[in-house]
User: What shape does this take?
Amino acid sequence: MILIDYNGIAIGTIVMEKLAVEENLIRHVILNRIRMYRKKFKQQYGEVVVVADSKRNWRYDVYPQYKFKCKDARKESTIDWQEVFSITNLVREELADNFPYKVLQVEGCEADDIISTLVENTQEFGNYEPVMIVSSDKDFVQLQRFDNVKQFSPSLKKFYTENNPRTQLAELILKGDQADGIPNVLSADNCFTDGIRQTTLRQKAIDQLMEDPKALGEEVYRNYMRNKKLIDLSETPGSLKQEIINSFIEQDKLHNKKKVMPYLIEKNCRQLLDDLGDFV
Assistant: This one.
């Protein structure tokens, strides 16, 4: 199974390559990326599954400060984000309608939740299969605790490899994730939103908390549980996990194989027609 982080390759490519916000160009680039990763990994890992973020995210309900900087960053950007999302959403829908790949977007979930749930499901009896995660998001490193999981980073053009994924996750929970607005376990929820400097988390405290998350008192333990809820991908609510599995099982896209060529012709993706076999 090749799990492609759709928002990562779509939005990430637009930003990193400074693409013009033009529908045909963005469509071509997204499709070509998917073609390229399918060709690279299909023989060893099987078929593509396209995974996308939903508009809502359950983490905002438990921690309103989650990713608070994202909206501000977009306001300051010169990119027309409304048009970017309009085009990438359109292409995602076209993939679902015209390609033989399962396309998963579940209300309330990030791509992280979907990918981690599908990975966990491969551990169930009879479901074991090799998994390639195509994403530059380091949050997926923790999933390498499962020995059937590998990760390829499109931005770095190389594999992410973590020899001690459980230790990496434990340390990330303690240190927090500033990019996602999550402070370290010694700091309050409003640390970043109110411009408060984080309390320094020294190695001695890290060592103590690695041994016992309650070692430094109830408040720190409360913050530890806050961070674990937000960072540990096994914390996705059970009801959402079931929706994800149901969506995955219910989709049957093999009949879409015959739609790929007419679609590429209709959308003037004629350069991709020479590589039609890479898509199907």
Observations:
- The chain has two domains: 2-162+237-279, 165-231.
